[in-house]
Specification:
With 692 residues, this protein is mainly beta. The chain is 4% helix and 37% strand. The protein has 3 helices and 38 strands. The protein has a 5-stranded antiparallel β-sheet, with no helix packed on it. Strands 3-4-5-6 form a 4-stranded antiparallel β-sheet, with no helix packed on it. Strand 18 and strand 19 form a beta hairpin. It is globular, with a radius of gyration of 27 Å.
Length: 692
C-alpha cells in the first residue's frame, strides 16, 4: 500500500476511535451514545457430513444415484414447536426399476444434521417409495436383492407424477400427486406420515387416498399438470386443514378450470372426492393453468390460489387468483381477479408460485419486461391477506435482465422473520451454456428495488457438464425455509443429470440435487485481522455473518471496518458493538468484500462462517484501492500473478501481523486463499470474475 494511503488509513482508524496496534482498542468518544454489546450466541454442535461421496460435480445428491431418472422435487420443513422441528423433507417422482412406472420417492434430513445428512441416498438404504402402486411392493426398490416375484405388479395403476408436499403444526407430512389409472384417466392421490417419514399411510397402511372425484362413467378430468398443497393450522379448533388445488380439463366441454379439495380429518376424507368443485370461473373459455396455493391469517383461515390464465380483455396470459377467509369452505371463495399488471402489451405471464405467512402473500412468475426481451421473474405482494396486490399497478422484476437468458419456473417462500426468497431456472452465461438455478431475496419485499437478484445473477447450482461438454441442465427448483442453526435458512432442491465421474454411478441419469449450507473456518488472532467471507450469504447482516453461531461461540469481536471506494466523501464504513445502531454504517458484509475485524476473544481461533458456495462471483473493482476476498471453492492454485493479469492490478497486499500497518505487498507467486482479505490497486475500473 502506498505510504499516503497507509497514513490516511491510520489517521482514519485513530480519529474513529480505532487503534491498529494489536490488542489495543480505544474506547469510543464520550459524546457517542452506546448500547451494551450483545452476548455471544450459544454454541451448537452439528455433525460432520458422513457421506462425502454424495458430492457430485459440485452439487450434493439426496437421491440414490441409480439408473432411474428423478424429476420434479418438492420440499417442506417441519415447523418449530412440533416433535420433529427443523427436519427437511423432499419428494419427487422416479422410475421404479422393477415395474418401469414412475413412483413417488422420498428422502429426509433430520434437524440435527442441518441438511448435511440424508436418508435413502445409499445402496444400503435405497430410495424410499411412499406411493402405493400395488400390494406387496417393496418400499426400498433400489436395495440389493429387492426383486419382486412374478405377478406382484399386475395391478400397477400407472405413473405417479408431480408430487407436492406440506407439513402441519403437529409435524404430520402430507403429500399429493397426480396418477394415471389403467384406463388412461388421471386422479389426485394422497399419502401421509405421522412419524417423520418412517412410515406412510399410502404405501405402508391402507393405501393412497383419492383427493379428486373419480367418476363412474370414466369421463374423468384430464390432469396434465401438478397439484399444489398447503396447510391451514387452526389453533382455535386444534386442527389442521389440508388444502389441495389442481388444473382439471373437463372431457365433454374441453374447458380447464382450477379444482379444489380439502380435509380436516388428517387426510382420511376429502371434500373433492365426492364431486368436482371448481374455484375458478366455471365455463370460461380461457383455460386456467398451473395453480399454486398458500395460506395466511391468524389461524391459517385465509387460503389463496393463484394460476396462469388468458385475460380476455388484454389477450395475454396474466396471473389470476381467488381467496377464501373461511378455510376454503364451499361458497366462500372470491370472484377470480388478476394480481399481475394486466396490460395490452403482449407480455405473457407464466406459471406462478405463491407463498404466505402472517397476513401476507407473495407471488412470483416469469414474464418479459419489454418486447423482444426474455422473461424475468416478476412479483406481486399482498400485506392484507390478499385484498390488495402491489403487482396490479406495475411489473416489478426481481431477477437480473439478461439477453437470451429467459427465467422459468419460479418457486418462492416467506420466513417468519421477514425474509422473502425466490429461486428459478435460467440459462446461465457459462461455458457449458447450461440452465442453472438462480436466486433472489429481500428482507423488505414491499420495496421492489431491494431484491438481491436485480443487480446481478446469483447462481446457486453448479454449472457442470459431461465429459463431452453436454450441459448438465438444472431445472424444477423448489424452496422452503427451515429453522436451523438458530435462524431461518432457505432449502433449495432441483433435478439435474449426473455426468460427473469419480463419485456415484455414471449413468447420465437425473438425480435430485441441492446446494447446501457449508461451514468455513476463517483463522483469526487477537486484535486486528484482515479477513473475507468465503461463501455467499442468505442474510448479510454483519452480526449474523460473523456471529460464529456454528463455531464454538467463543470467538468474539467488537469492531469492523471496510473501505468503500465508491463513496469518495465517506469511504470508511464502520461497525462497533458499543455504538447505537444509527452510528454504524457497516451493517452488511458479503463474499465480495474484505474487512478489518478486531477480535476481542480468540476462542478456538476461528470464526465459523456459514453460507453457500457460489459458482461464480463478479467483483466490481473501482479505480484505485479495493478491499477484496477470494470466494472460490478451489484456493490451491490461483496466484497474485493471475489476479494482476486478469484485472490489471499493479499492487496486491495481504495481512501481516508484524508489519507496522498490518499489510505487506504480496509476491506474484503468492496463492490467494478463501477467508483471507486483500488490498488490490487497479489503475482503472474493471470486473474480476472468481469462478469455482
Amino acid at each position: 500500500m502506498p505510504r499516503t494511503a497507509i497514513v490516511i488509513f491510520a489517521v482514519i482508524l485513530t480519529i474513529s476511535g480505532f487503534s491498529i496496534t494489536p490488542g489495543i482498542v480505544n474506547a469510543p468518544g464520550s459524546d457517542l451514545t452506546t448500547n451494551d454489546a450483545p452476548s455471544p450466541p450459544s454454541a451448537e454442535s452439528l455433525p460432520s457430513p458422513i457421506e462425502p461421496n454424495m458430492w457430485v460435480g459440485g452439487d450434493y445428491l439426496i437421491s440414490y444415484d441409480d439408473d432411474s431418472n428423478a424429476f420434479h422435487p418438492a420440499v417442506a420443513t417441519s415447523p418449530p414447536g412440533c416433535p420433529f422441528a427443523g427436519s427437511i423433507h423432499v419428494v419427487w417422482d422416479e422410475v421404479n426399476e422393477v415395474t418401469g412406472t414412475r413412483e413417488i420417492h422420498y428422502s429426509m434430513s433430520p434437524a440435527s444434521s442441518g441438511g448435511r445428512e440424508w436418508s435413502n441416498d445409499e445402496p444400503s438404504e435405497g430410495d424410499r417409495i411412499i406411493s402405493d402402486a400395488s400390494p406387496g411392493k417393496d418400499g426400498f426398490e433400489s436395495v440389493a436383492g429387492a426383486i419382486a416375484p412374478p405377478g406382484t405388479f399386475a395391478n400397477n395403476p400407472g405413473d405417479a407424477l408431480d408430487p407436492a408436499i406440506a407439513i402441519d403444526m403437529y409435524g404430520n407430512i402430507h403429500v399429493v400427486w397426480r396418477q394415471m389409472y389403467t384406463d388412461g384417466t388421471w386422479e389426485i392421490l394422497y399419502s401421509r406420515s405421522v412419524d417423520n417419514g418412517m412410515t406412510w399411510s399410502g404405501h405402508d397402511g391402507t393405501g393412497d387416498k383419492l383427493v379428486s372425484f373419480r367418476r363412474a362413467d370414466g369421463k374423468d378430468q384430464q390432469i396434465q399438470q401438478k397439484p399444489a398443497i398447503a396447510v391451514s393450522n387452526d389453533n382455535s379448533l386444534n386442527r389442521a386443514v389440508i388444502q389441495v388445488v389442481w388444473p382439471g380439463q373437463e372431457p365433454t366441454s374441453g374447458l380447464q378450470d382450477i379444482y379444489y379439495s380439502s380435509s380436516d380429518s388428517n387426510g382420511e376424507t376429502w371434500t373433492g372426492a365426492s364431486s368436482d368443485s371448481a374455484i375458478s370461473a366455471i365455463g370460461s373459455t380461457a383455460f386456467a393453468f398451473a395453480p399454486s396455493l398458500a395460506t395466511s391469517g391468524t389461524n391459517g383461515n385465509v387460503v389463496c390460489a393463484a394460476w396462469q390464465q388468458l385475460n380476455p380483455a388484454g389477450a395475454t396470459n396474466e396471473i389470476f387468483f381467488t381467496g377464501s377467509s373461511s378455510f376454503g369452505a364451499q361458497g366462500t371463495w372470491t370472484t377470480e381477479d388478476t394480481i399481475s399488471y394486466a396490460q395490452t402489451d403482449g407480455m405473457n405471464a407464466g406459471p406462478p408460485s405463491i407463498a404466505g405467512y402472517g397476513n401476507s402473500f407473495i407471488a412470483c412468475w416469469p414474464q418479459p419486461k419489454q418486447t423482444g426481451f426474455p422473461a424475468d421473474v416478476m412479483y406481486s405482494l399482498s400485506s392484507d391477506n390478499g385484498n390488495s396486490w402491489s403487482g396490479r399497478t406495475n411489473d416489478f422484476p426481481i431477477s437480473h435482465p439478461d439477453i437470451n437468458c429467459p427465467a422459468m419456473s419460479p418457486s418462492v417462500t416467506l420466513s417468519p422473520d421477514g425474509l422473502a426468497y425466490a429461486v428459478w431456472t435460467e440459462r446461465d452465461q457459462n461455458p457449458n451454456n447450461s440452465t442453472e438455478v438462480q436466486a433472489s431475496c429481500t428482507r423488505t419485499p414491499g420495496n421492489p428495488g431491494s431484491w438481491s437478484g436485480i443487480s446481478r445473477d446469483i447462481v446457486i447450482s453448479h454449472p457442470d457438464a459431461s465429459g463431452l461438454g453436454t450441459p448438465a441442465n438444472a431445472a424444477n427448483a423448489s424452496v422452503a425455509f427451515a429453522f436451523l442453526d438458530g435462524g431461518w435458512h432457505p432449502q433449495v432442491f432441483w433435478d439435474e443429470p449426473n455426468y460427473t465421474t469419480g463419485s456415484g454411478k455414471i449413468n447420465d441419469n437425473w438425480e435430485i440435487n441441492r446446494n447446501p449450507l457449508v461451514d468455513s473456518n476463517v483463522t483469526v488472532s487477537a486484535g486486528w485481522n484482515l479477513i473475507s467471507v468465503p461463501t455467499e450469504q442468505e442474510d448479510t447482516a454483519i452480526t449474523t455473518v460473523l456471529g460464529d453461531s456454528n463455531g464454538d461461540g467463543a470467538t468474539t469481536w467488537d469492531r469492523a471496518l471496510w473501505f468503500d471506494p465508491w463513496d469518495a466523501a465517506n469511504p470508511w464504513k464502520q461497525y462497533y458493538s458499543g455504538w447505537n445502531a444509527s452510528l454504524n454504517d457497516l451493517a452488511a458484509v458479503n463474499h465480495t468484500m474484505a474487512i478489518w475485524v478486531n477480535v476481542t476473544a480468540v476462542g478456538d481461533g476461528v470464526l465459523t462462517v456459514t453460507g453457500r458456495e457460489s459458482s461464480s462471483t463478479a467483483i466490481s473493482l473501482h479505480s484505485g484501492w479495493n478491499m477484496i476476498g477470494y470466494p472460490a471453492v478451489d484456493d490451491s492454485a490461483y496466484t497474485v500473478s493471475n489476479l494482476k493479469s486478469e484485472t490489471g492490478a499493479t499492487i496486491v497486499e495481504g495481512f501481516s501481523s508484524t508489519a507496522t500497518y498490518k499489510t505487506t505487498a504480496l509476491p506474484d507467486a503468492y496463492i490467494l486463499k478463501k477467508g483471507e482479505g486483500y488490498w488490490a490497486y487497479v489503475p482503472s475500473a474493471t470486473t474480476w470474475t472468481v469462478d469455482w
